[in-house]
Known about the structure:
Helix content: 25-40%
Family: Belongs to the GcvT family.
EC number: 2.1.2.10
Strand order of the largest sheet: 10-11-12-9-3-13
CATH superfamily of the largest domain: Probable tRNA modification gtpase trme, domain 1
Subunit structure: The glycine cleavage system is composed of four proteins: P, T, L and H.
Largest sheet: 6 strands, mixed
Main location: mitochondrion
Distance between the termini: 37 Å
Shape: globular
Enzyme class: transferase
CATH architecture of the largest domain: 2-Layer Sandwich
Amino acid sequence: xxxxxxxxxxxxxxxxxxxxxxxxxxxxxxxxxxxxxxxxxxxxxxxxxxxxxxxxxxxxxxxxxxxxxxxxxxxxxxxxxxxxxxxxxxxxxxxxxxxxxxxxxxxxxxxxxxxxxxxxxxxxxxxxxxxxxxxxxxxxxxxxxxxxxxxxxxxxxxxxxxxxxxxxxxxxxxxxxxxxxxxxxxxxxxxxxxxxxxxxxxxxxxxxxxxxxxxxxxxxxxxxxxxxxxxxxxxxxxxxxxxxxxxxxxxxxxxxxxxxxxxxxxxxxxxxxxxxxxxxxxxxxxxxxxxxxxxxxxxxxxxxxxxxxxxxxxxxxxxxxxxxxxxxxxxxxxxxxxxxxxxxxxxxxxxxxxxxxxxxxxxxxxxxxxxxxxxxxxxxxxxxxxxxxxxxxxxxxxxxxxxxxxxx
Length: 408
């Protein structure tokens, strides 16, 4: 979603503060847009005070009864439960599924151990990002991945087109789109202790980026220790008929400390963690190198290439890109997408792609792209908002330290 969810959340907060604003106007919007899809938790969201808004073709909760600020802080202190069932999970199966996928993504999929995964990027022929995705090698002939809701149609068309050509040459790969499943994201320091109540498997042996199939609350689930907040947590793929029941069990077990949380806080959390939002911080004209994701390009892939746009990307790895994604602090109003970034002397050098006020740091944070050579931490700059230049400085990301659960 161009411009990010933070702006949408702030707009919602202002509207809720006006007489006659709030749920009524959003209910009217939902009624005026019957084409919006609903997750199986839609009624559960509404019953719990969810403020539903259109997002990527779905009616999704932007926030609940608490503010986006409070939701963000509670996730860091206790935990959050997000409905992310609008995202698209799919499985690739067949003895050539790894070889097929490596034609489309930058990751060293072959080098993953079964039961482990990584963030990767689907690229086009120019090296630009079609989408980012978390992929998991379940077994040597089964890959599970989740793609962004707003990119579903183009991603499936892209994968399907290449799969058809691959299979026409004798390749053994097929796919299944998991529309029969829902996806819950449980994030924050209480996520593991609470989830442990609901499964017999020892979660202390499951580390960041690892995947397991197991019973949770008596139902067979896919569990990945990952998330989009910078906190320890899990994404749980559950058969849709059991999704509401599982959500209730998690909330009940937390004794009110883990809260249902909407897309507004999800955006502020991922921004604090320095994570890209596709459509804002990454698009089809931006390469993984420019986006600061060179680490996701496996060593073997750097040597061999073999993925779409490899020539462009490998040349950027060797020579350096002309622009780079950076983090920054700024004074004045919170920066927004498309805010111009200039040197102290006023020379344009780039623009903000995501920005807002950090609930945890109590200061403005943003990420954006600037010319190479002006990207180093400590570089002073200006951020232009409504015609006024505000002081800023480039800083390292993440803005808030991550707490991923890894072996000591």
